Amino acid sequence: MTVVATPPAPKLELPPLKLGPITVDTPVILAPMAGITNSAFRRLCREYGGGLYVAEMVTSRALVERTPESLRIISHDDDEKVRSVQLYGVDPVTVGQAVRMLVDEDRADHIDLNFGCPVPKVTRRGGGSALPWKIDLFTSIVQTAVREASKGGIPLTIKMRKGIDEDHLTYLDAGRIARDSGVAAVALHGRTASQFYSGQADWSAIARLREALPDVPVLGNGDIWSAEDAVRMVRETGVDGVVVGRGCQGRPWLFGDLQAAFEGSDTRHKPNLQQVAEGVYRHAELMVETFGDEGKALREIRKHMAWYFKGYVVGGELRTRLALVSSLQVLRETLAELDQDSPYPGVDAEGPRGRAGSPKKPALPKDWLLSRQMDADQTRDIAAAELDVSGG
Predict the structure, then answer these.
(1) CB under 8 Å to 66, separation ≥6 — which residues?
(2) For residue 314, which phi and psi values (nearest 5 degrees)?
(3) Rounded to 5, what percent of the chain is helix, strand, coil?
(4) Would you name the residues annotated as active-site residues?
(5) Are strands 84-88 and 52-59 parallel, antiparallel or unpaired?
(6) How far is CA 364 from CA 10, 171, 370, in A?
(7) What are phi and psi of 4, to 5 degrees?
(8) How many CA atoms lie within 13 A of 128 on its CB side?
(9) Tens digit of pLDDT for each residue in 353-362?
(10) CA 391 → CA 37, 45, 88, 180, 184, distances in Å?
(11) Whether 184 contacts 156, CB under 8 Å
(12) How far is CA 379 from the centre of its chain?
């Protein structure tokens, strides 16, 4: 890996992140991303830098029912220092049961609750970023989860968005409720559900939440594409740490850049094409270990190809074949066709990646916005609204 170093920059005076008994020396968190942050990708990221690496989101009902996929999602490598799990749920009883299972069976050291997912199949059932609008339901879920987690001394955090749209913001109320309920930290993605991932993240909202909650760690999320973005977010908002999602897709070495930046170093990873190819192959090998099925692992790695090779000189026909690899041997042979001496392309390899989507009216349960409290019909429906879905 090509590493470029320039004279040291001023060290960012940001102390380690404290989450209950857990100390995260580099205050960076890998955001849970469906189909991305499995144990293979988490291993890649932590090999480059420090932080807290969260597994893919798992639904509470699926976990309580012990579906094979849910148990795979919460599995961690033996050397993962902190086993971090993110739960999604809309029913306080089911969420409480899932947290109790994680505690009683010693399956997690940190639990995060998802209140930020903007995916329609989640919000139309009242989950994800739609849920904090209902103050009573949100409060019940958070209080139940904190109570169950505390029985095992496990810190519980929440991740949320600004709200449903600009006319229905929830983050300040939700942050205070979570703080008063005893959460260990609150993370805010500076977008509404209606924005999906489009436009720019509103860092000023993150700053307002930081100011409103001086007595609990606040973490900022949204548009961190580089170490410099992370430093700028900390300086502009005063957050205690940053949450990185799409910015590390195809760039697990970003965590090395982040650690260097927080330590006052300008060292940055700028891989040439050969080094990217080596990283892709290692990722694929780790995926085979994770899934125990080479075919499935290679199907999973395909989605990462465009992210890894963003900005690099790779012909269209070769890109197509990389996106259709079916075995490690085929992958190895295809990667060998790349121009191994092609240098790091600079800004073309950086910046936004993945689909941003476009602003849209969020899908919500019937009459969801009429009141901040649940009505009888919504209360009845929510008990059956747990879905086996993933999203972040």
Answers:
(1) none
(2) -135, 125
(3) 45, 15, 40
(4) 117
(5) parallel
(6) 47, 18, 11
(7) -105, 130
(8) 28
(9) 877 778 889 9
(10) 11, 20, 9, 27, 23
(11) yes
(12) 29
Are the CB atoms for 309 and 296 separated by under 8 Å?
no
- Cα–Cα distance, 10 to 193 (Å, whole number): 36
Which tokens belong to 90?
A: 């809309």
User: If you search the block for the tokens 């924005």, which residue do you land on?
Assistant: 195
Exposure on the CB side of residue 90, measured as CA atoms within 13 A: 29
Mean pLDDT of 43-68: 95
Helix residue ranges per DSSP H, 77-134? 92-104, 120-123
Strands 3-4 and 268-269: antiparallel
Q: Residue 205 has which token pair?
A: 């909202």
Q: Three-state SS for 217?
A: coil
Contact by Cβ (8 Å): 347, 330? no
Give the number of other Cβ atoms within 10 Å of residue 328's Cβ: 17
pLDDT in tens, 326-345: 999 999 999 999 999 999 99
The structure tokens listed for 123 are: 């919000």
Measured distance CA(59)–CA(391) in Å, rounded: 10
**Does residue 17 register a pLDDT over 60?**
yes
User: What's the pLDDT score for residue 4?
Assistant: 60
What is the rounded distance in angstroms from the CA atom of residue 78 to the CA atom of residue 315?
40
Alpha-carbon distance values, 258 to 18, 220, 263, 374 (Å): 18, 14, 9, 42
| Cα–Cα distance measured from residue 122 to residue 378, given in angstroms and rounded to the nearest whole number | 15
CA 47 – CA 367 distance, rounded (Å): 48
DSSP state of 9: P
Q: Which helix (H) or strand (E) holds 256?
A: helix 254-262
Cα angle 235, 236, 238; round to 5: 65
Task: Copy the structure tokens of residue 100.
Answer: 């109790």
Cα distances (Å, whole numbers) of residue 167 to 164, 170, 194, 221, 368? 8, 10, 11, 21, 14
pLDDT, one tens digit per residue, over 120-165 is 989 998 999 999 999 999 999 999 999 999 999 999 999 999 999 9
